[in-house]
Each structure stands twice: as structure tokens, then as C-alpha cells.
Amino acid sequence: MEGVSAVPVPQPRARTTASSAASASRRSLALALLLGAAGATVVLLASGQEWASGKAAVGGGTLPLTADGQDVTGLPAALAVVGLAALVAVFAVRGAGRYLVSALLALSGLGAGLSAWLGASDSSALDEKAADTTGDTAATVAALTHTAWPYVTAVGGLLLLLAGLLALRHGSRWPTMSGRYERDGTPRPRTAPKAAPDPDRPEDLWKALDRGEDPTRES
């Protein structure tokens, strides 16, 4: 028929946009978990490795000494534990609490990385060992060498920092752990209360006792 124009069919843009947002949220969540767990693991493992070595003069000879990351600074490992706890706590809180925990995660990674980087050239730990070994408080370590483990620890701190930044940026759209609510926020259906056991049926009484219930209590 003439004079009748075709009515445009609306496209499901809203549904597509929501699906894309949900997909991006899942990707950011998975990436943050991966970065956080990997970063904390790297920091904890690398901080336990040998960071520096040297030789202390003892009598007419020298004594080789080594220092691991915990001898140099215990801060990276402590902050890695804090960051790992914050990574888990992100899913237990919501709103402003989630931002605070995410910021704690990012700051833990930043602190772990910086302290490891600064400890890469530290010699005080070996000097203390030399003083304790020789009994001379002025003793120092010669032929000082450093390994790459402090820098590996710093990389682990950087991974924790990135996880925290992702949580700050996308954490508001991540799901929250809950005992009664599903991911979409709807309450789970409550289970119907069980009927009281029939005192005239011994099998019901035994079943109630097996469940830890008092068959003599009235509902």
C-alpha cells in the first residue's frame, strides 16, 4: 500500500551492552585474581632466596657470609601476606569498604616492590652478620655481591599493585560473597521446615535422632 512507511525494528542494544559489561567484569576479575595470587607467591618465594653475599675477615683468613631477603628486610613478605588477605577481602565487602580494601591491596604491592628495590643494594645485613661472627662491631663485609632476587621480589610487588589498581577500577562490578544471595542479588529460597516426627512411627524417631534433633520437642 502506498503512503505506509516501514516501522524500524529496535535492536537489542541494551542487552548487548549489558552482556559486554558482564564479560569485561569477569575478565578483570580473573586477571586481578591471577595477578594478585602470582604476585604474592613471587614475593614470598623470592624474599626467601639469597640476596647478597660477601666475605668477613676473621683472624688471618676470610669467612663467607650470605643474606637472604628476610635478613635484608622482612617488609616485602609481610606486605605480600597483607595484600593476599586484602585480595580475598575484596569479595567480602562492598561499597566504600571495597574501595578501601582495594587501595590496601595496591599499597601493599607498592610497598613490597619499593622495599625490595631499595634492599637490592643493601649491605647492612651482611655487616651485622660480620660483626656478630667476628665479635668486632666495626667489622664490615668485603667482596660484596648481589643477586637478582630482590628485583624478582620487586616484580612480584608490581603484580600485586596491578591487581589493586584493577580492583579499584572494576571492583564495584564484581560479585560479593554471601551465604543467602546469588550473584544477581536475589535471595535464595529458604528450605521448608521439616515436619515433626510421628511418635507412633519409631523409624521417624530414629531418623530425627540421627539428624541431631530432639523428637520430643514440639514444633
Describe this structure as you would to a colleague.
This protein has 219 residues and is mostly helical. Helix content is 54%, strand content 11%. It has helices spanning 13-46, 69-72, 75-89, 96-119, 124-134, 149-170, 202-210; strands spanning 50-58, 61-68, 141-146. A three-stranded antiparallel beta sheet has the order 2-1-3. Helix 3 (75-89) packs parallel to helix 6 (149-170) and helix 4 (96-119) runs antiparallel to helix 6 (149-170). Mean pLDDT is 80; it is low at 179-185.
Question: TL;DR?
Answer:
With 219 residues, this protein is mainly α. The protein has helices at residues 13-46, 69-72, 75-89, 96-119, 124-134, 149-170, 202-210; strands spanning 50-58, 61-68, 141-146.
Average residue pLDDT: 80
**How many helical elements?**
7
> Quick one: biggest sheet?
3 strands, antiparallel
The ordered H/E elements are HEEHHHHEHH
Rg is: 30 Å
Q: Helix share of residues?
A: 40-55%
Give short descriptive properties of this protein.
three-stranded antiparallel sheet, mainly alpha, 219 residues, single chain
Topology:
Blueprint: H1 13-46, E1 50-58, E2 61-68, H2 69-72, H3 75-89, H4 96-119, H5 124-134, E3 141-146, H6 149-170, H7 202-210
Antiparallel strand pairs: 1-2, 1-3
